[in-house]
Write a structure and sequence with these properties.
This protein is α+β, with helices and mostly antiparallel strands. It has helices at 11-17, 23-31, 123-130, 150-158, 194-200, 232-241, and strands spanning 9-10, 35-37, 40-41, 48-49, 56-58, 61-63, 71-76, 104-105, 114-120, 138-144, 161-162, 165-166, 171-174, 182-187, 206-214, 217-218, 227-229. The two termini are 27 Å apart.
Length: 247
């Protein structure tokens, strides 16, 4: 029986489904010449493969899709790097999260940013959550160096012009009894160091940044530096946020 076009899938989707990386990150791996199909380097981002016949390798290690998908929430502590390994020997998320499956973080948090970090081996799921199209909200508690001015609260709510364009309007909440130095911020974008840059553009220094929730998933009841598997209900809620229908 011949393989139909429908049975073939794009190489980046295969890598995402295998939990190697998101589709965007998989495209980078392909462009860098780190991916082989049947022992031949492939650098065409549009190439499709037959998962039943073709053998895929990343850095000469064969990639096989695992049927079991896992979803983890980690309450990231300060001074923890959100990567698999660090060339300077600093603690990474995998100094805390110990699972046999190969998982990767959904997005990134800076070394000194604490709070909710999701990890999974479901590349499509991760890619959907990070894609701007689906406007998945992230909530932060931001501690700054001086009281925020009312006019700057207004600017944050309207959008801040940064080097890579104007941000989408943010939801802003002033935390009571904190001398206007602690602010709750909800955004649905995921630009590099976005919260820091938004406040820096208004001449504030961010002392502390804590991600309280990703979509509706918070770290409530989960101590800093600890992790757990998400419940089926939490996974379903995240998939709904990302526009993924349950089969």
């Amino acid at each position: 029986m011949k393989t139909t076009i429908e049975e073939k899938i794009r190489l980046n989707k295969y890598l995402a489904n295998a939990g190697v990386a998101s589709r965007r990150q998989a495209d980078i791996l392909i462009s860098d010449g780190r991916v082989k199909v049947n022992r031949e380097i492939v650098m065409d981002l549009g190439v499709k493969i037959d998962p039943q016949k073709d053998k895929v390798f990343v850095d000469d290690k064969q990639i096989v899709i695992l049927d079991d998908k896992i979803y983890i929430i980690f309450n990231k502590p300060k001074d923890c790097i959100a990567t698999a390994r660090d060339e300077r020997g600093r603690k990474t998320i995998f100094s805390y999260v110990n699972v046999k499956e190969r998982v990767f973080p959904v997005g990134r948090l800076d070394r000194n940013t604490t709070g909710v970090l999701l990890l999974t081996n479901d590349g499509d799921f991760a890619n959907r959550l990070m894609h701007p199209k689906f406007e998945v909200k992230k909530a932060y508690k931001v501690t700054i160096d001086k009281p925020i001015k009312p006019e700057d609260v207004k600017k944050l709510k309207e959008g801040i012009r940064l080097s890579d364009g104007k941000t989408e309007p943010a939801e802003i909440y002033i935390v009571p009894r904190e001398k206007n130095k602690v602010i709750g911020v909800v955004i649905h974008e995921g630009r590099n160091r976005q919260i820091h840059r938004m406040f820096e553009a208004l001449d504030y220094e961010v002392y502390k940044l804590d991600r309280l929730a990703y979509a509706d998933i918070s770290y409530e009841g989960l101590p800093r530096g600890h992790w757990r598997h998400l419940t089926k209900g939490e996974v379903r809620k995240l998939k709904n946020n990302a526009g993924i229908s349950e089969e």
